[in-house]
Amino acid sequence: MVAKTFKFDDDLEVNRLGYGTMQLPGKGVWGPNANPKAAVDVMDAVLNSDVNFIDTADAYGPLFANDYVRQALQDYEGAHKMIATKVGFTRQGPDVWTPLGNPDYLRQQVEINLFSLGLESLDLIQLHRIDPHYPLADQVGVLADMKKEGKVKHIGLSQVTIDDIEAAQKITPIASVQNRYNLTDRHDEGVLNYADQHHIAFIPWYPLATGHLATATGPLADIAKAHRATPAQIALAWLLHRSDVILPIPGTSNVNHFFSNTAASRITLSAEEMTQLTNLGDAE
Ligand SMILES: NC(=O)c1ccc[n+]([C@@H]2O[C@H](COP(=O)([O-])OP(=O)(O)OC[C@H]3O[C@@H](n4cnc5c(N)ncnc54)[C@H](OP(=O)(O)O)[C@@H]3O)[C@@H](O)[C@H]2O)c1
After folding, report:
1. Residue partners of 121: CB distance under 8 A and separation at least 6
2. 65: which residues sit within 8 A by CB, 6+ positions away?
3. What is the Å distance from ligand 1's center to 21 Cα?
4. What CATH number should be reported for the domain whose range is 5-211+244-253?
5. From CA 146, how far away is CA 148, in angstroms rounded?
6. Which end of the chain is more exposed for a tag (fewer CB within 10 A), N or C?
7. Which atom, in ligand 1's list, is nearest to the CA of 253?
8. Domain boundaries, the chain
9. Contact, 201 vs 177, CB < 8 A?
10. What number of H helices and E strands is found in the chain?
């Protein structure tokens, strides 16, 4: 039986299929969307759907994705949506990402995320990358301090090893891990298994392999056809079946793709289909 929700704590339980905002800014995750109203419309659709787990970062744009989230949140009056954001990356241009783990800057970034999202506290702050130039204890430590100050509820990591998680857990509880993982990229199977054993949310980025899985042929397309579904929906359904701690966050700038992706949570895969799909991957 596939779990529909994941519980971060007694007050914070989310539907497992979420949404990632990285496709909302301009090309190279830089600057505004060519049609900013369309980006806010996507966010409106997200907020008015069952999706209540949204992943963003001030680095997306920078700031444009957060601003689209804030604009949509302004008019939204429904149930609480969990906004997960990230700190630890600076941007110098399209597709250019430079980690910066100076704890003073991380503190400023938490404030920038709060302001740009229009929130008083952040449900989940994730360290986007560990910066080797600063001690881990300082990078995670400043986020732990801000948790004590009430600005952050949960702390997560991104693109880390099991050793990194265990080192960070010595400083503060780690609620989530966001690593690259999808049907055909399973390098981090070990980290996923660790997260599963410790009830840590595992948030796979590139859940659609940046869209490649949406246009797949072969067995993935065959299984999709049998379910009258799309390959993207089957790739997401596989993630949802793979482990109950997985929270996929497919990114899209297209409202129709968003609705199509969310329908993946209604697909039930048989054990045989799971085996067939799992065999497509490159697990180590
Ligand atoms: N922690 C990290 O280091 C990290 C790194 C990268 C991403 N992320 C997070 O992970 C999220 C997901 O990653 P992602 O957005 O880069 O990649 P993704 O979800 O694997 O794929 C997004 C791509 O797939 C296309 N797509 C989405 N749904 C589709 C559908 N139903 N049919 C056809 N094409 C579809 C999108 O184009 P359209 O816009 O045309 O739909 C876009 O080009 C991001 O939004 C971000 O929140 C985190």
Report:
1. 114, 150, 151, 152, 153
2. 21, 22, 24, 25, 56, 57
3. 8
4. 3.20.20.100
5. 5
6. N
7. 39
8. 5-211+244-253
9. yes
10. 10, 11
